[in-house]
């Protein structure tokens, strides 16, 4: 059974974008699953994106939306949260880790998906000068590519809460506007999140008040260890692209410092020139958190194995 055939596609889209999936299911007297199935079917047939109003996902509580929230609070009793950092999306083929992310969003049906900063690269509006005659993509092309990639994640994890914790590269978008055109500050479209209405943006996401997700904190090769010591929390960061899980025990028990690696391939075009062909202690990966009765199990990494496989829990998964 699909969402009521008495409702046209046009009316379905209007209602979905106005009242959201849960309320629409009530009005049509169908299941939430059927509403999402029809949404996906319409999106594929008409090649459009159906944007839901901002709200919480089933099984996940979230704090009220603010225009410039510094933090998103999540409560997850049981299930998974997937955290992916440093996509640096450029026009071109999808990275292996991105394909893996989409695959595991479908398989694990996470309660939340968190993009932990640097979703875009934005080299054209960087404060750093160009290196030689390097070719940089237009910012508009980066934004369109990011929209496509995030829409793939949305379709794969349509019931999950979607959060974007901002990174330093993401911040370039508004920093540039604020410096050259501050009079546009409060006009819709001048903020990065205006282009991604299905994602809640903040500097950090807190899960059960025990786990902090933010793009960066301490620096250096021992950052995951230092992050958990100085924060007093399990903390998942990106920025350094190193992909590692570091346990830390004290009288309060075990907590973890986690570097989530990068969704981008480590040899991506975005990195070629500024790394000057130096060896990089980086890994293409993302993080899976598992909660049981509100408690966090040891965080796990999904790591790129080769151009067609990721590794997870001792198995290779083709993506």
Can you walk me through this structure?
The protein is built from seven helices and 16 strands. It is an alpha/beta fold and 319 residues long. The chain has two domains: 1-53, no CATH class; 60-318, Purple Acid Phosphatase, chain A, domain 2, CATH 3.60.21.10. Strands 3, 4, 5, 6, 12, 13, 14, 15 and 16 form a nine-stranded mixed beta sheet that branches. It has a seven-stranded mixed beta sheet with strand order 1-2-7-8-9-11-10, covered by helices on one side. The radius of gyration is 20 Å and the shape is globular. The model is unreliable at 55-59 and 61-68 (pLDDT under 50).
Mean pLDDT: 84
The radius of gyration computed from the alpha-carbon positions, rounded to a whole number of angstroms, is 20 Å
Assign a percent range to the helix content. 25-40%
Taken together, the total number of domains comes to 2
What do we call the CATH topology of the largest domain? Answer: Purple Acid Phosphatase, chain A, domain 2
Short description:
By secondary structure, the protein is an alpha/beta fold.
What's the topology here?
Elements: H1 9-28, H2 32-46, E1 61-62, E2 71-75, E3 79-84, H3 96-108, E4 112-115, H4 139-156, E5 161-165, H5 168-180, E6 200-202, E7 204-207, E8 211-214, H6 223-231, E9 234-237, E10 244-250, E11 253-259, H7 269-272, E12 285-292, E13 295-296, E14 300-306, E15 309-312, E16 315-318
Helix pairs in contact: 1-2, 3-4
Which short descriptors sum up this protein?
globular; nine-stranded mixed beta sheet; 2 domains; alpha/beta; 16 strands; 319 residues; Purple Acid Phosphatase, chain A, domain 2; seven-stranded mixed beta sheet
């Amino acid at each position: 059974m699909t969402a009521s055939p008495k409702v046209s596609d046009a009316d379905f889209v209007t209602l979905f974008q106005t009242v959201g999936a849960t309320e629409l299911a009530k009005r049509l007297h169908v299941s939430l699953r059927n509403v999402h199935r029809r949404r996906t079917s319409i999106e594929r047939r008409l090649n459009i994106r159906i944007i839901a109003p901002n709200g919480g996902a089933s099984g996940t509580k979230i704090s009220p939306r603010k225009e410039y929230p510094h933090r998103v609070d999540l409560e997850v009793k049981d299930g998974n949260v997937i955290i992916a950092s440093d996509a640096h999306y450029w026009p071109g083929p999808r990275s292996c880790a991105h394909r893996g992310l989409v695959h595991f969003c479908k398989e694990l049906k996470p309660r939340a998906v968190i993009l932990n900063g640097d979703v875009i690269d934005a080299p054209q509006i960087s404060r750093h000068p160009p290196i030689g005659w390097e070719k940089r993509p237009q910012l508009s092309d980066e934004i369109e590519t990011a929209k496509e990639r995030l829409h793939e994640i949305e379709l794969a994890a349509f019931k999950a809460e979607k959060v974007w914790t901002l990174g330093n590269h993401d911040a370039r978008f508004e920093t540039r506007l604020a410096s050259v055109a501050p009079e546009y500050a409060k006009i819709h479209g001048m903020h990065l999140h205006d282009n991604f209405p299905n994602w809640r943006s903040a500097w950090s996401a807190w899960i059960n008040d025990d786990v902090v997700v933010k793009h960066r904190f301490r620096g250096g090769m021992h950052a995951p260890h230092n992050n958990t010591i100085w924060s007093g929390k399990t903390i998942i960061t990106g920025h350094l692209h190193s992909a590692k899980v570091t346990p830390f025990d004290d009288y309060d028990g075990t907590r973890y410092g986690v570097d989530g690696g990068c969704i981008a391939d480590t040899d991506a075009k975005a990195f070629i020139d500024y790394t000057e062909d130096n060896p990089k202690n980086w890994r293409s990966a993302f993080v899976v958190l598992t909660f049981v009765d509100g408690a966090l199990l040891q965080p796990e990494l999904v790591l790129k194995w080769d151009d067609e496989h990721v590794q997870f829990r001792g198995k290779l998964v083709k993506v």
